[in-house]
Design brief:
seven-stranded mixed sheet; globular; 227 residues; alpha/beta
């Protein structure tokens, strides 16, 4: 196999093993030259470019987390904002986007509602939004090294109910998919196999989050504007 074949194979494998994750979401959008807003971006620009290589990517975060010169160089615009100005920083971007991604970001925001509304505002009609955030159930999960209970991560501000956020803007949104506690089977099985070791070692293992259903996921389409 050549490198292109291997890349395509691993892309297919990752989408199959996590059929509602970011990669599957991006691949479900047929437009190639998308304008993407990556909220709480980290080094995701590299990953996004691998799936949508012809797209332009804008990133917003509160600091340089896990960024390299290479990853920052892939952004059309890279915005650092103070936490209390985060929603306004999104709102003030003079662009609208085909795709908006918030992957484990909104639970870190001081004002999740305003941040969500700003994301919706910056999405084109017909555009799509992806949200992943800890399940509301995670506040009752056992505490574990690596972060299993919601409050194991001291940077988490408050649990976020994606359904309530969606309802607040439902006049201009359509929910394409929602799962309150995602457990993709292969990763769930790996977590189940390793749960005894994870508990004994007090540390997250491959599949632990999926076994417990740590992640809440929503795919959204914007269908209208404010009246």
């Amino acid at each position: 196999w050549n490198m292109v074949d291997l890349t395509d194979f691993f892309d297919f494998l990752k989408k199959t093993l996590r059929p509602r994750g970011q990669r599957a979401f991006l691949s479900s959008i047929k437009k190639d030259n998308c304008k993407i807003l990556d909220i709480g971006c980290g080094k995701n620009s590299i990953f996004l470019k691998s799936v949508k290589p012809n797209s332009s990517i804008y990133g917003v975060d509160v600091g340089d987390f896990n960024q390299s010169d290479e990853s920052k160089g892939l952004y059309q615009q890279y915005i650092i904002s103070k936490p209390e100005m985060f929603a306004r920083a999104i709102q003030n971007i003079p662009e609208d986007f085909d795709i908006v991604i918030s992957n484990h970001n909104i639970e870190h925001c001081n004002d999740p509602q305003s941040t969500f509304t700003a994301m919706v505002d910056r999405t084109k009609v017909g555009g799509s939004l992806f949200f992943a955030t800890p399940s509301l159930n995670s506040v009752d999960f056992p505490s574990r090294g690596g972060g299993l209970n919601f409050y194991d991560d001291p940077t988490h501000v408050s649990p976020v109910d994606l359904c309530k956020l969606f309802e607040s803007e439902s006049d201009r949104l359509e929910c394409i998919y929602y799962e309150k506690s995602a457990k993709p089977f292969v990763w769930w099985f790996l977590g189940w196999v390793q749960e005894y070791i994870s508990k004994r070692k007090n540390w997250i293992r491959l599949g632990t989050w999926d076994y417990h259903g740590f992640e809440q996921i929503m795919w959204i389409k914007k269908i209208g504007t404010l009246a």
